[in-house]
Every structure is written in structure tokens, then in C-alpha cells.
Amino acid sequence: MTTAVARSDRRISPIFLGIAAVMAVSGWAVWTDFVEPPGLTIFLFVTAAWVVSLCLHEYAHARTALHSGDISIGAKGYLTLNPLKYTHALLSIVLPVLFVILGGIGLPGGAVFIERGRISGRWKHSLISAAGPLTNVLFAVVCTAPFWLHALDGVPLGFRYALAFLALLQVTASILNFLPVPGLDGYGVIEPWLSYRIRRQVEPFAVFGLFAVFGLLWIPEVNTVFFDAIHGLLQSLGVSEFDTYCGFDAYQFWQQSNPSCVAG
């Protein structure tokens, strides 16, 4: 089976490179305390890093699909990491960023269109669905590593808080993506193993899965239980709830900062 892709179909998009450059420059500015107060640079760093992770999430889906047999992936532009090439740019990028800005939560985005008929084997279909959220898991490990390795001594508080908030986003994205809810990757993992009858019954509800999860998280009791679990997991990795709170506080630079976060 061939997985040959034209060079132009896998050339990294200038748009993605620009986003990565914003992440690198703003991250450097936060790390060095180049700008005071650091609110705007923290906002740029976290937002750009979040978009980069969204692009790599979708790239992981596409790359796995390519090697599983869907050779149409390259022509669709999914291997260029260009977020404008995704099936639903609004769902893939705009809404996830908006959710971060408004609520500080890493909700999963949209999707790349994979021609599943080209792929045989249930394990391959499951792996394609799992590849995206596993990328978020990897990001979560990278973001939390400096905390559980105790490698943040002497680092500006702004960078510590930004990294903690970014870790929160990646952990929430990992968990939410793996929920077995129609329309989310977690359901895509188990769907190949369900009967044809069940898949047909569930299919009409797939478009509402993401919004159903979002709606549930607006219920105070559900929100409390969910974030208690998230903070418990982060705490076990060395990331305190105070760090993530101050990270979100700094991220929303247009609002008045909490003095306790500034004081550290």
C-alpha cells in the first residue's frame, strides 16, 4: 500500500510557522520578564501554544490516517499544519480559542475529514481517533514536566503561571477528547467495535456531542466535580491550583490582576 505524498502537500504552512514564531517570541519574553507587566505576552504565548497543539492534534489524526491507507490526506492539505485547511476552521480553531479566553478550559476542536472507506481494520480506525488526544497527552507531559522535575527554581513567576495554565488546558483537552461521546475522539476509538445498528442509531447525534459536553460543564455541580478531578491530577504532577488560577488570571490581562498572584 502506498502512502506517497507530493512534496508540496507536506510542506509546512507559513501560517503555522508564523503561529509557532509568535509562541517562541512571546514565550521568550515571558521567560526573561522582557515586558512588565507580562499579561499581554502571557496571553500571546498561551494562545499561540494552544493553537500549535490544536494543529498538531489534527496533524496526528491525518498522519495516522495516511499510513493506515487514506492517501487523499495529502491533497487536502492536512499535512501542512495549516489550520485553515481543516474541515471546520471555526470548530477547529476559533471556538477552542474562544473557550480558553472566556472560561479557561481546553475544549476539543473540529476535525480533519478522513475517508474511512479507504481504511480496513478496526484497530487502524481506533488508532486514528486516538492519535489526536494522545498528542494532547504528550503536550500535558511536556508542560507539567518542569513542575514534577522541580526545574522552575529562579524562573519568573509569569512563566510558571503561564505553563501551569497551559498544562491545565492540555489535561482538560486530553480528558474531554477521550470521552466516549459521539462526535469526540473517544467515541471514535470505540466506534469500530460497535455493531452496525448501534452506530447508525448514534450517528445523528455526533454533531451535537461537543456542544452537549460544553453545556454540561456549565452546570455548576458538574463543573465543580470535573475541575476538582482535573486539579487533583495536576496536583499529583506538582502543579498547584494556585499556579493554574494565577495563570488564568494573568492570561486575562484585560482584567484587574489578583494581588496575591502578583506577590507570588
Core attributes:
264 residues; mainly alpha
Q: How do you describe this structure in short?
A:
The protein is 63% helix and 0% strand. It is an all-alpha fold and 264 residues long.
Task: Write structural notes for this entry.
With 264 residues, the protein is mostly helical. It contains eleven helices and no strands. Helix 1 (14-31) packs across helix 2 and helix 2 (39-68) packs antiparallel against helix 3. It is globular. The N and C termini lie far apart (57 Å).
Topology, element by element:
Layout: H1 14-31, H2 39-68, H3 89-103, H4 122-148, H5 157-177, H6 185-190, H7 196-202, H8 209-217, H9 220-236, H10 241-251, H11 259-263
Helix pairs in contact: 1-2, 2-3, 2-4, 2-5, 4-5, 5-10
